[in-house]
Predict the structure of Threonylcarbamoyl-AMP synthase.
Amino acid sequence: MQTRILAPDDQGLAEAARWLAQGALVAMPTETVYGLAGDARDARAVAAIYAAKGRPSFNPLIVHVPDLTTAERYAVFDAPALALAAAFWPGALTMVLPLRPGSGIAGLVTAGLDTVAIRVPAHPAAQALLRCFDGPLAAPSANPSGRISPTTAGHVADPETGLGGRIAAVLDAGPCAVGVESTILGWQDGAPVLLRPGGIAAERLEAVLDRPLASHHADPDAPTAPGQLISHYAPRASLRLQADSARPGELLIGFGPIKGDMTLSDSGDLAEAAARLFDLLHRADDQGRPIAVAPVPETGLGAAINDRLRRAAAPR
Ligand code: TXA
Ligand code: MG
C-alpha cells in the first residue's frame, strides 16, 4: 500500500474522510501528537489500527469527537467531568468515563471495558476531519507500538521507524504544538486519578477540581494504558537520563544551562521542551549513537516529559 500525504484543505479532508468511511486508516494531526484514526464504530477498522501499530490488543484506544455534545453520546458525564470539559476542551485532556450503553462504539476500542477514554482535540485539522467524517474516531498515537510518538507527518510516513506503507494516508499539518500526549484522567471509587501525565499539567486539573489528584500505581503486567508499560516511547539507541555532560560517543540532548548537541529548550521553557521532545528523540535516534538527556524539572509539563523519558530509557 502506498501511503498518501494529504494537505489539510477541502480536497485533502474530503479524501481523508472517504478513506475513513471505507474502513481505512488515516493519520491525523492533533495538538499533542499525530493520531492513527479509524472509525470507532467499525470493528474492522479498529482491528486494523491494532494491526498497523503492532499493539497488544488489551490496550484500549481514545475516542475523538468534535465537541462535548457529541462526547455525551458516547460517555456519561458527571459534574466534575463537565467542569473539566468546560475548562479544557477542546484541548489536551482525555477523560475515562462510563461508556454510554448502546453508543455503538466497537468493543475493541474499549477492549471490552465499561469505560471509554474520550477527548475533544483542539487542532483545526482534527476538528475539520471530525466534522467532515461526521463520526467518532478511535486514534492512538500514530507510531509502531512501543516506539517514539510522532509529532510530524514525516515521522508517521517513515517506512522504517513509522507507519509508511501500512496506512492509507497522512494528513500533513506540520509539527504538533504541544508535543506530548494528552493528560489522561479517570475516576476510581469516586476520586479523580491521574492515569497519564500529559499536555495539561496535573496542577491545572487540581485547580478546577479543587482537590488533589491521586496518581495511578501502574501494574506493569496489567496496564490500563500502554503509556504505563515500563518500556515505551523507545528509540533504537540506548538512553541515559540526568546527564550533565556527554560521555564519549554519546549524543547529548540539553536543557536550560546544560548545552548539548541539540537542546530541548535553551531558556529552560517546559512547553518548548515538550513540543520538541519526540522530534529530537527521532533525530537523535537517526544518528545511531547512544543518547544522553540533561535533567528536566518535575513541575508542570516536566512531569509528562520525564514520564516519557523514563519509559524511553527503561530496560527493554
Ligand atoms: O494525545 C493523545 O492522547 C494522543 C492523540 C492522538 O489524541 N493519543 C494517544 O493515544 O496517546 P494512545 O492510544 O497512545 O494512548 C491512549 C491511552 C492508552 O494509554 C490507553 O490504555 C488509555 O488511553 N485508555 C484508553 N481507554 C481507556 C480506558 N477505558 N480505561 C483506562 N485507560 C484507557
Ligand atoms: Mg502512544
Remarks:
- Residues 140-141, 149, 227 surround magnesium ion (ligand 2) (CB under 6 Å).
- The two ends are 31 Å apart (CA to CA).
- Residues 63 and 138 are 4 Å apart (CA to CA).
